[in-house]
C-alpha cells in the first residue's frame, strides 16, 4: 500500500507545519538562515550590474584616456570583487548554519516520533499499518524534514535572485525574461513527474526492504546463530538475500536509466533555448542598440537566470518528494493518543477485586474472537488458575486484565470500576505482572528489577525483597558487580544470563511493587528448574490475589478456581477437585500430565 500524493492545499499545510517545527527546534538558527538567504539571494544581480559598470567604465576610459574615468573603472572592479567575496563568505556561513539546523531538526523530529510512539496504546503498537508508518517516519526523521526546509529556503533564495534578475532583464526586454522561464520549464515538468513516481516506487517496495533486513539479521545475529549453524541454512539465506538484492537493483537501474534519458533530452532542449537568447543579444549589440557593458550583463543575467530557474525547479521538485515523506510523518503525529494520566485511583467497591463480565476481544482482521464472552471473579486473597492449549486466549486475557487492551464488549472492573476509567499509574500500582514473553533488558540487573516501578530510583531493601520473592537473590550475589552488572556480553564487563535466570529477574520485577495486591503471572516458572518452581508455588499469598497461567497443571492444584479456555471460550470452571470429578478436558489433561508430578 502506498500513501496517496497530497493535494496542493494539504501540501502547503505540511510545508508550513514543517517550518513551524524548524522554528520551535531553533528560533535563532531559523532567523539567521532566513536573513542570510535574503542577503545571498540579492548579491548575484548586484555583481552582474557592477560587471556592466566595469565594462562600460573600461570602454569610456579607453575612449577618453582620462585618469578620472580610469579610476572610476577600477573602483567598479574593486566593488565587483568585494561583492563576490562577500557572496562567497555569506554562502559559507549559510552552509555552516544549515548543518547545525540539520542536526537540531533531526533531533527534534526523532524526539517527537519517540514521544508519540510511547503514547500509543498496545493495540496501536501491534497494528501492522502503524508499524509501517513509524518505520518510514523513523527512517527519514533526520533527513526529509530538514531537506524540505532546506529546499524551501533554497527555493526562496533562487526565487529572489530570479526576481532581481528579472527586474534587470525587463529593463532591456521582457521577452528575455520569458526566454529564461521557457528554458527551465521542460526540466521542471520532467522532474515533477519523476518525484511522484520515485516516491511510489520506493515506499511501494518497503516490504521487500524489510525482508532484506530480516534476512541480514538471520545471518548476523547471535540469537539466530545456533539454529543457522546446526541446520546449515546460512548459504540458502545468502542465496535468497542475493536474489532479493538483484531484483531490487534491477528495478532501481531501470528507474534511474529512464530518469537519466528524460533528463538529458530535456537538458538539451533548455540549452538550445538559452543559446537562442545569446545569439539574439549578440546580434542586437552588433547592430549598436546596446553597449558592450549591457551585452556582458545581459548574457550574464541570462545565464544566471537560467541557473536560477533550474535550481528553483530542482528545489521545487525536491520539495514535492520530501512533502510525500513529511505527509507520512504528520499522519503519524495525528494518530490518536491514549491519555491515561488522569482517571480514578480507587474504585467504589474496594472489596470487590478483579472481575471479567462477558469480556470479548477480537484482533483486527481475525474472524474468531481471541476471547469470547469470558466471565470470572477474583476476590481479594484468592488464587485463580488458567489453563488452555496454545492460542486459546490466555495471553490476550492478561492484556485485558491489565487494561492494555479494552474489550470489544463486556467489562473488566477492578473494585467495581471499569479499567478504562482507572489512571494508568494507579492500575500499575495495584497489579504486579509478569508478561509472556517477558523482556530481558540489556541494562543492569538493578534496572531489570527497577523497571517494575517505572525505572524509578529504588531503595536497596525493596530491591532485595523483590529479588528474594523472584528467587533471584543467589544469582545476583554471583554476578561480578552484583546489581550493577550490565546484563549483556556486548558491553565490556557485561555478563549474560541463562533463560531460567532471566525469568527470575522478570519475576523479581513483577514483585518489586509491594503495593500490588493482584499478581498476574503468565507462565512464571516455565524456564525454571523443578525445585525453584516448587518453592515458588508453595509460597503463601500474604493476602494478595493471584492469576496464574501454567501449562503444568500440578501447579494449579491449590488454586481456589481454575478456568479452562478453549478457542477463546471458558469451557470449564471450578476447583481442581470439582474439575477432576467432572471428567472433562481438565481431567483429561491432568491425567496425561499426572505421572511425573503426582504427589506420592
Ligand atoms: P495463548 O496465550 O493461549 O497461547 P493468545 O492469547 O496469545 O493465546 O492468542 C489467542 C488467539 O489470538 C490466537 O488465535 C492467536 O493467533 C491470536 N493472536 C494473538 N496475538 C495476536 C495479534 N497480535 N494479532 C492477531 N492475532 C493474535
UniProtKB/TrEMBL annotation:
Cite the GO molecular-function annotations of the record. Answer: ATP binding; ATP hydrolysis activity; ATPase-coupled lipid transmembrane transporter activity
Q: Give me the segments passing through the membrane.
A: 29-50, 72-90, 184-202
Classify the main location.
membrane
One cellular component term (GO) for this entry is:
plasma membrane
- Output the SUPFAM superfamilies linked to this UniProt entry: ABC transporter transmembrane region, P-loop containing nucleoside triphosphate hydrolases
Q: Where in the cell is it found?
A: Cell membrane
Pfam families named in the record:
ABC_tran
Record key words, sorted: ATP-binding, Membrane, Nucleotide-binding, Transmembrane, Transmembrane helix
Coiled-coil parts of chain: none
Per UniProt, residues of the ABC transporter domain are 354-592
Task: Write down the membrane topology.
Answer: Multi-pass membrane protein
Against PROSITE patterns, the record matches this protein to:
ABC_TRANSPORTER_1 (PS00211), ABC_TRANSPORTER_2 (PS50893)
Stored InterPro entries: AAA+_ATPase (IPR003593), ABC1_TM_sf (IPR036640), ABC_transporter-like_ATP-bd (IPR003439), ABC_transporter-like_CS (IPR017871), P-loop_NTPase (IPR027417), Type_1_exporter (IPR039421)
Q: Which PANTHER family match?
A: ATP-BINDING CASSETTE SUB-FAMILY B (PTHR24221), HAEMOLYSIN SECRETION ATP-BINDING PROTEIN (PTHR24221:SF646)
Protein name, UniProt field: ATP-binding cassette, subfamily B
Which species is the source of this protein? Maricaulis salignorans
Q: What is the lineage of its organism?
A: Bacteria, Pseudomonadati, Pseudomonadota, Alphaproteobacteria, Maricaulales
Amino acid at each position: 500500500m502506498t500513501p496517496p500524493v497530497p493535494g496542493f492545499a494539504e501540501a502547503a499545510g505540511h510545508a508550513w507545519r514543517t517550518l513551524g517545527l524548524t522554528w520551535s527546534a531553533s528560533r535563532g538558527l531559523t532567523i539567521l538562515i532566513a536573513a542570510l538567504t535574503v542577503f545571498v539571494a540579492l548579491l548575484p544581480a548586484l555583481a552582474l550590474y557592477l560587471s556592466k559598470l566595469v565594462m562600460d567604465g573600461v570602454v569610456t576610459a579607453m575612449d577618453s584616456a582620462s585618469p578620472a574615468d580610469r579610476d572610476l573603472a577600477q573602483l567598479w572592479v574593486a566593488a565587483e570583487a568585494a561583492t563576490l567575496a562577500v557572496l562567497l563568505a555569506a554562502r559559507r556561513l549559510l552552509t555552516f548554519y544549515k548543518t547545525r539546523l540539520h542536526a537540531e531538526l533531526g533531533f527534534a523530529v526523532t524526539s517527537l516520533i519517540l514521544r508519540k510512539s510511547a503514547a500509543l496504546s498496545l493495540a496501536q503498537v501491534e497494528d501492522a499499518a502503524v508499524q509501517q508508518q513509524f518505520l518510514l517516519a523513523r527512517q527519514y526523521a533526520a533527513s526529509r524534514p530538514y531537506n524540505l526546509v532546506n529546499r524551501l529556503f533554497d527555493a526562496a533564495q533562487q526565487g529572489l535572485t530570479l526576481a532581481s534578475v528579472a527586474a534587470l532583464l525587463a529593463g532591456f526586454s521582457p521577452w528575455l525574461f520569458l526566454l529564461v522561464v521557457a528554458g527551465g520549464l521542460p526540466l521542471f515538468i520532467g522532474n515533477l513527474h519523476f518525484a511522484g513516481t520515485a516516491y511510489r516506487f520506493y515506499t511501494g517496495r518497503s516490504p521487500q526492504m524489510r525482508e532484506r533486513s530480516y534476512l541480514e539479521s538471520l545471518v548476523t545475529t547471535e540469537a539466530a546463530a545456533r539454529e543457522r549453524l546446526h541446520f546449515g541454512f546460512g548459504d540458502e539465506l545468502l542465496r535468497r538475500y542475493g536474489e532479493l538484492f538483484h531484483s531490487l537493483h534491477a528495478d532501481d537501474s531501470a528507474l534511474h536509466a529512464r530518469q537519466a534519458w528524460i533528463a538529458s533530452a530535456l537538458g538539451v532542449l533548455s540549452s538550445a533555448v538559452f543559446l537562442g537568447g545569446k545569439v539574439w543579444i549578440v546580434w542586437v549589440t552588433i547592430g549598436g542598440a546596446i553597449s558592450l557593458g549591457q551585452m556582458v550583463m545581459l548574457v550574464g543575467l541570462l545565464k544566471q537566470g537560467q541557473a536560477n530557474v533550474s535550481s528553483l525547479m530542482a528545489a521545487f521538485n525536491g520539495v514535492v518528494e520530501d512533502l510525500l515523506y513529511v505527509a507520512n510523518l504528520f499522519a503519524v503525529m495525528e494518530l490518536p493518543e491514549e491519555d491515561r494520566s488522569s482517571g480514578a485511583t480507587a474504585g467504589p467497591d474496594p472489596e470487590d477485586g478483579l472481575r471479567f463480565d462477558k469480556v470479548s476481544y477480537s484482533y483486527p482482521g481475525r474472524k474468531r474472537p481471541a476471547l469470547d464472552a469470558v466471565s470470572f471473579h477474583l476476590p481479594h486473597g484468592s488464587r485463580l488458575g488458567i489453563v488452555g492449549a496454545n492460542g486459546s486466549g490466555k495471553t490476550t486475557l492478561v492484556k485485558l486484565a491489565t487494561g492494555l487492551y479494552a474489550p470489544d464488549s463486556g467489562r473488566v472492573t477492578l473494585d467495581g470500576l471499569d479499567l478504562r476509567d482507572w489512571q494508568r499509574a494507579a492500575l500499575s500500582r495495584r497489579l504486579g505482572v509478569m508478561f509472556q514473553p517477558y523482556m530481558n533488558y540489556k541494562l543492569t540487573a538493578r534496572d531489570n528489577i527497577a523497571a517494575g516501578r517505572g525505572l524509578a530510583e529504588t531503595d536497596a531493601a525493596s530491591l532485595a525483597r523483590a529479588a528474594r520473592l523472584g528467587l533471584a537473590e543467589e544469582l545476583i550475589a554471583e554476578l561480578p558487580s552484583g546489581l550493577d552488572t550490565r546484563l549483556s556480553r556486548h558491553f565490556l564487563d557485561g555478563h549474560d544470563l541463562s533463560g531460567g535466570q532471566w525469568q527470575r529477574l522478570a519475576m523479581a520485577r513483577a514483585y518489586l511493587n509491594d503495593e500490588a495486591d493482584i499478581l498476574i503471572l503468565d507462565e512464571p516458572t516455565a524456564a525454571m528448574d523443578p525445585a525453584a518452581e516448587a518453592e515458588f508455588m508453595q509460597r503463601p499469598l500474604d493476602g494478595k490475589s493471584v492469576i496464574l497461567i501454567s501449562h503444568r497443571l500440578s501447579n494449579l492444584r491449590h488454586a481456589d478456581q481454575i478456568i479452562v479456555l478453549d478457542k477463546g471460550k471458558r469451557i470449564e470452571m471450578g476447583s481442581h477437585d470439582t474439575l477432576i470429578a467432572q471428567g472433562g478436558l481438565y481431567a483429561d489433561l491432568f491425567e496425561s500430565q499426572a505421572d511425573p508430578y503426582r504427589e506420592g
